[in-house]
Design a protein that fits this description.
- The chain is of the alpha/beta class.
- It has a single domain, classed as Rossmann fold.
- 41% of the residues lie in helices and 13% in strands.
- It contains 5 helices and 5 strands, in the order βαβαβαβαβα.
- Strands 3-2-1-4-5 form a 5-stranded parallel β-sheet, sandwiched between helices.
- The radius of gyration is 16 Å and the shape is globular.
- About 4% of the residues have low confidence.
Length: 174
């Protein structure tokens, strides 16, 4: 039995990289996993296969976390498949555009704001309400970039919007 036996983890952006590695590690500790992706269905299917190879259940849900309705659907599908979600890992994100501020369009900037401010808010709110309905408990893990601390040229859009810190006040979460 692993430390996460009988737990369900929803991990955004778990089709590759840190999200995929987190999904596989959580499965190794006994968690069932909701694999989320935006474009890379093949990567998401690979993550699902690795979770299942660890003896755990997994579902794959395509959802754009920059769209509030899709965030709701993502959590709806997780609850429909597993009954609840115990762990939410906010991992999905987009890289900096490479544009200098003088050349940065509002549309490009808005994608970063939705990715790093709205998406965590919508997901955090939904996750907390799921946990409240299930009697409390749960974990929120926010993944962010080293560029929160180490700025780089061409990343003003990303650096100014990466607010993925544990700002979700969640009474009752352990």
């Amino acid at each position: 039995m692993g430390r996460l036996t009988d737990r369900v983890a929803l991990i955004t952006g778990s089709d590759s990289g840190i999200g995929q590695a987190t999904a596989v590690a959580f499965a190794g500790e006994g968690a069932d996993v909701v694999v989320n992706y935006l474009h890379d269905e093949k990567g998401a299917d690979h993550t699902r296969a690795q979770v299942e190879a660890a003896g755990r259940r997994a579902i794959v849900v395509q959802a754009d976390v920059t769209d509030e309705g899709q965030v709701e659907r993502l959590f709806d599908e997780a609850v429909a498949a597993f009954g609840t979600v115990h762990i939410w890992v906010n991992n999905a994100g987009v890289d900096a555009s490479g544009s200098q501020v003088a050349d940065l369009s509002t549309e490009v900037f808005d994608v970063r704001i939705k990715s790093y401010v709205y998406a965590p808010f919508w997901s955090c709110r939904r996750f907390i309400n799921i946990r409240k309905d299930d009697g409390g408990g749960g974990k929120i893990i926010n993944v962010t970039s080293v560029h929160d601390e180490i700025p780089r040229a061409g990343a003003a859009d990303s650096g100014s919007s990466e607010l993925r810190v544990v700002w979700c006040d969640a009474p009752g979460l352990e």
